[in-house]
Amino acid sequence: MNLKVDFSEEVALALEQKRPVVALESTIISHGMPYPKNVETALSVEQTIRDNGAVPATIAIIGGRLKAGLSREELEYFGKKGTAITKVSRRDIPTVVARGEDGATTVAATMIVAHMAGIDVFATGGIGGVHRGAELTMDISADLEELSRTPVMVICAGAKAILDLKLTMEVLETKGVPVVGYKTDELPAFYSRESGIKLNTRSDSPEDLASIWKAIKNLELGNGMLVTNPIPQQYSMDSKEIGAVIDKAINEMNSLGIKGKEVTPFLLDKVQRLTGGDSLEANIRLVLNNAKLAARTACALVK
Fold first, then answer.
1. In 3D, which of 34, 27, 87 has the Cα closest to residue 59?
2. Of 65, 200, 301, 303, which is most buried with the most CB atoms under 10 A?
3. What would the pLDDT profile of 144-169 be if each residue is shown by its tens digit?
């Protein structure tokens, strides 16, 4: 066990017994949804992982300690404190730890702690990427860099739809990150199943995903792997309609001068309000779908 990480009893025992474990991020709890929906969703995601044969390990920083696996009380604490908790990426981890503060881990930070903890599979909603207008702002998520340097398999519903998906894929290709479509040849667009962007690699089973991941590990390539799992058809939103909503949200964001790490929470919240909550329901459903695939893939890995 890594002494830099505090493990819950459930996660510690699972790792000791070489049972399947799936990492989960904590930013989705603190910054992704309002209370109490955030806690309800977190518990539902954890239960989905258990129902599919694996053990959930929600990653966070509490009182300056890296955590792999949170108690019900800790999940409630994160949900209630919400955006008052610092949103933590790679650059923020040392400061939050040194000052004994709380930190909600983004995709990048969750990958780092999961790797420290010896957890190979991580389920999330959508990754960060290249923001629209990045040719002027250089606003590119650290998630992409982390995928190129930290060996963890990330299962998501594509990059968040508020981003420039084509440029996000270009950066991932440049950094040599394998992007695998699960039962699809096209990059999912988070709220919707289609983006019009073709993928080079497709996989049709958790066992095949596990075999690709084992090859990455055995070859010691040192990078992560991105699995893009489309939102279930019945919850998919019309790409043109959600696109128009996102454009409206981005225009308001620009008029307010919102930048940096506040961009994604603002846009997700604005899109939720403009869609009357439909985007939030879609977000929940795609996270549950990713958790199910992650658990089955983690089970295939330990066989």
1. 27
2. 301
3. 999 999 999 999 999 988 889 999 99
Distance (Å, whole) CA 179 – CA 167: 14
Phi, psi (rounded to 5 degrees) for 72: -60, -40
Catalogue the E-assigned strands of the chain.
Answer: 5-7, 21-24, 55-62, 65-68, 86-88, 103-105, 121-123, 153-156, 179-182, 201-203, 225-228
274's CB contacts (< 8 A; 6+ apart) are 245, 248, 249
Q: Are 54 and 290 in contact (CB under 8 A)?
A: no
- Catalytic residue positions, numbered: 25, 160
Contacts 24+ apart (CB under 8 A), 3-6: 4/66, 4/116, 5/66, 5/67, 5/68, 5/113, 5/116, 5/117, 6/65, 6/66, 6/67, 6/68
pTM: 0.93
